[in-house]
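Hey, can you fold this one?
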Amino acid sequence: MRHTDSHRWLAGTLALLLVFALLLGVSVAFTGCASSTPVATTKLGKVQGAVTTKGIDTFKGIPYATPPVGDLRFMPPKPAAPWNGTFMALKYGKAAPQPPDALSGVRPAQQSEDCLTLNVWTPAVDSSKRPVMVWIHGGGFTNGSGSDPIYDGANLSKRENVTVVTINYRLGPFGFLYLSGLGGPDYAQSGNLGLLDQVEAVKWVKDNISAFGGDPSNITVFGESAGSISICSLLGMPAAKGLFKRAIAESGAPNLMHSAQNAQSITTKFMQQAGVTDIAGLRALTTAQMVAAETAMSQQKTSYELVFGPVIDGSAIPQPPLDAVAAGSAAGVDLIIGTNLDEMRLWTLAVPQLARFPLAVVSPYIPMVQQAITLTALATPEAVSASYASRRPAASAGDVSLAVMTDVMFRVPAIRVAESQSAKQKTWMYLFTWPSPTIKSLGACHAIELAFVFGNLKAARVSRLIGQDPPQVLSNTMQDAWGAFAKTGDPNGKGVPSWKAYDAQTRATMILNTTSKQEDDPYGADRAVWNGVPFNGVKPSL
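Sure. Predicted structure:
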């Protein structure tokens, strides 16, 4: 046989073999090619995903609940229906409807009320029973999605050998419009639909994550900002009891809760803005009209407040979550909770005056801060400012104001959760202090830790805050601590400095920075200013 003929014969033979392999359903792979397409068999049907460049199996846009549209708008979530065939989980589901973000102006391109989906990253679809970490995104209960590039779970999943899940939940008036006063018992939980969506998502994970190599008996929920407030709320919600074993709360506590009265007032304002008078009118609004009314309402704010968010409704949330935790509602749930040193500095991007004015000028515009001051022994903004300034001789009046606001809105409320939960279960406290190298006035502001937690130091848009060369060692420490905690309930382990559990005597706190270390009661004199202030969502209140 001639050389060219032998080549043709070989090529033809290989082509025939490939055809037979395809007809018989045989998987043909050559050394150096990508691994086979991952398929997971859930209780609702088969799900096909893809393999990332990092070798992690990823599944995107899986529905965990029935789309909350039509008659299901303003109703608690219903479980997803089974599907025939194989669900192609190859692209993210659409984000919840939302206005542009107030700070960045960014909003997801694809939005829909049919938004209740989740995403999974796992080292392999097998029977390994890896720890599961379910992320609840932030965004003030009005913005965000589980598909934000900063939340891509591949790096965290690969480094820690865990199964990572991110979720969407209803936002703004779709998830937190309190309609009990209008609709009666059928709408008793309407002010907390976003939280009930989160509960439904974790139920789905518990029922199905074993199909993705995860351990349904070892679920950690973790989240930041509104996601952290959500987690603190879940700790006190009867519907969430027993669904997860551990929790990590980053920069958010259950002080930012609405009373039923406050929530009803917000509902009235929203309906006036939308031009409707009853639930039928609300149901008749298009998605775009709902978002437009929400946007217009938020632009009319004269003070800092969360327009939408969890409601102490006596139903989904029977009592203030902090009070429930103190009574033992989350006994058995290990907890990491913490904040960033300069949380409130992020908002100086939108309101530069916060960085300049003394506390007596800015506190009247932030009702929670004003109320909190009156509950202290010092009683006045001037006295509280003088106390903080005495420990910051080089600080400007604006610096002092921002330190006080950070403590009132974030740090001390988180400490209250740690105090309550540490009496029932192992609890760990941290303080993230690494400052922005690019916008130095922001310091260690709100949300700056996110890229480090997920190991996504090059994600879209993050360089503006953390620069082009952020410290990998800090990301490694946080991922290793979070991963060890997800595995064992203890963040100590390889690459993590010695970290003692929190108690109300020593107040051990991990200071997270390029060189992380534990300190007892950091900024303790500032903390002591607020002794006796509950920060339970009732005193002070929004």
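The CA atoms of residues 131 and 218 lie 5 Å apart. Let me know if you want another pass with a different chain boundary.
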